[in-house]
C-alpha cells in the first residue's frame, strides 16, 4: 500500500543533523531550518502554530519556551541518547511524544570510556606530547599506573555502564557499581552507598543521565574521596561534576588525573583545564563513528516513519 504523503506536514529542525537524516526529513516533510532563521522569535510568532514535529539532537534539545510556542506540536524526535536538554515534562503534560536513540551507541560510548581510562592511567597522550616535543633525548618518560587488577567504579550500570563493565573486566579490572538498586543478572560488586564505592575504587567512571537529578552529583567532597592515586572519567554530562572543584583537585594533585568527554559549557573548555597535564580532553565524541552516527540517524528516521505512517508507533519513546 502506498503511504500517504507527509510533504505538507510542517516540521522544525532545531540544528544541523546527520546529512542523510536531514536530507530525508527535508525531502519528505515541509521542513524549516530553525538555526538559519534571522529572527527566530518573529518566525515562531508567525508560523509556530503550524509545526507538528521537532527534529533535534541531544546537544540542542527543545526548550519549554519553544515548545510553548508550538500549539500543534505532536512529537519531538531527538538524535542522541541523552534528553536532559529537552523539556520532557512540558512535552509530557501536553501528550507530546519524545523519542531518543538508545542502545545503538552503547558500544562506541563504552569504547571511549575505556580509552579515556587507559589514556589517563597510562599517560599515553602525555607521552605522545613528550616525544613530539623532543624531550625523549633528554630523559625517560615518567612511569604510569597499571590497569589490570585495579578497581573501576561505575556510576550508573545501564546499557552503557554495563558495556563499560564488560570492557573493564576484559582488562582484568575489578568492577564495582552504584545504582539506585542492584541490577539483576550481573556479578559485579554492588554499592548502595556512592561515597563508599568512590573511596574503594581506583578509577571512577560516570555513566548516568544528565538533568537535575544528577546535577553536581560528583562534588568537591566526592572528588576528594578518590584520593591522590584516583582517577575520574566522565562520558555522561558535564553537569554531573563540579567542574571548578575538579580543576582545583587536579591542579593540587589531590587526585591523579581525569579523562573527560563532556563539560559544563560545551564547546567552551576552561583554559584552566587545558593547561593541566594530568587530564585527557575530548570534544564530546563518544558516539562519533560513521557507523554509530548512521545507526542513530536510521533510528530517528524509523521513529519518524512509525509515528506518521504506522499509527504513531515509535521504537524508542522516552519515559
UniProtKB/TrEMBL annotation:
The keyword Oxidoreductase applies. It holds the Pfam family 2-Hacid_dh_C. Residues 12-312 form the D-isomer specific 2-hydroxyacid dehydrogenase catalytic domain. The keyword Oxidoreductase applies. GO terms for molecular function: glyoxylate reductase (NADPH) activity; hydroxypyruvate reductase [NAD(P)H] activity; NAD binding. InterPro entries: D-isomer_2-hydroxyacid_DH, D-isomer_2_OHA_DH_cat_dom, D-isomer_DH_CS1, D-isomer_DH_NAD-bd, NAD(P)-bd_dom_sf. GO terms for cellular component: cytosol. Keywords: NAD, NADP, Oxidoreductase. Residues 114-286 form the D-isomer specific 2-hydroxyacid dehydrogenase NAD-binding domain. Belongs to the D-isomer specific 2-hydroxyacid dehydrogenase family. This is 2-hydroxyacid dehydrogenase.
Amino acid at each position: 500500500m502506498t503511504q500517504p504523503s507527509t510533504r505538507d506536514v510542517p516540521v522544525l529542525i532545531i540544528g544541523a543533523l546527520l546529512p542523510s537524516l536531514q536530507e530525508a526529513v527535508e525531502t519528505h516533510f515541509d521542513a524549516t531550518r530553525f538555526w538559519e532563521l534571522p529572527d527566530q522569535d518573529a518566525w515562531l510568532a508567525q508560523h509556530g502554530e503550524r509545526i507538528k514535529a521537532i527534529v533535534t539532537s541531544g546537544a540542542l534539545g527543545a526548550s519549554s519556551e519553544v515548545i510553548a510556542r508550538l500549539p500543534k506540536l505532536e512529537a519531538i524526535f531527538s538524535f542522541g541518547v541523552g534528553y536532559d536538554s529537552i523539556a520532557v515534562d512540558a512535552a509530557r503534560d501536553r501528550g507530546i511524544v519524545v523519542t531518543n536513540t538508545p542502545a545503538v551507541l552503547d558500544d562506541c560510548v563504552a569504547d571511549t570510556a575505556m580509552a579515556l581510562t587507559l589514556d589517563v592511567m597510562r599517560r599515553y597522550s602525555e607521552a605522545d606530547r613528550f616525544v613530539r616535543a623532543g624531550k625523549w633525548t633528554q630523559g625517560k618518560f615518567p612511569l604510569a599506573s597499571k590497569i589490570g587488577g585495579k578497581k573501576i567504579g561505575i556510576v550508573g550500570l545501564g546499557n552503557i555502564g554495563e558495556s563499560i563493565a564488560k570492557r573493564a573486566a576484559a582488562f582484568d579490572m575489578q568492577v564495582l557499581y552504584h545504582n539506585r538498586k542492584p541490577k539483576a543478572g550481573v556479578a559485579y560488586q554492588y554499592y548502595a552507598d556512592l561515597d563508599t564505592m568512590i573511596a574503594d575504587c581506583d578509577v571512577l567512571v560516570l555513566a548516568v543521565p544528565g538533568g537535575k537529578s544528577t546535577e553536581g552529583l560528583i562534588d568537591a567532597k566526592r572528588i576528594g574521596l578518590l584520593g591522590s592515586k584516583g582517577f575520574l572519567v566522565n562520558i555522561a554530562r558535564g553537569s554531573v561534576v563540579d567542574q571548578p572543584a575538579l580543576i582545583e583537585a587536579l591542579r593540587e594533585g589531590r587526585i591523579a588525573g581525569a579523562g573527560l568527554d563532556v563539560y559544563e559549557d560545551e564547546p567552551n573548555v576552561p583554559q584552566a583545564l587545558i593547561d593541566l597535564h594530568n587530564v585527557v580532553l575530548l570534544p564530546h565524541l563518544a558516539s562519533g563513528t560513521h557507523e554509530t552516527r548512521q545507526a542513530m540517524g536510521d533510528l530517528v528516521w524509523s521513529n519518524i516513519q512509525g509515528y506518521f505512517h504506522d499509527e504513531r508507533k515509535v521504537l524508542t519513546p522516552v519515559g
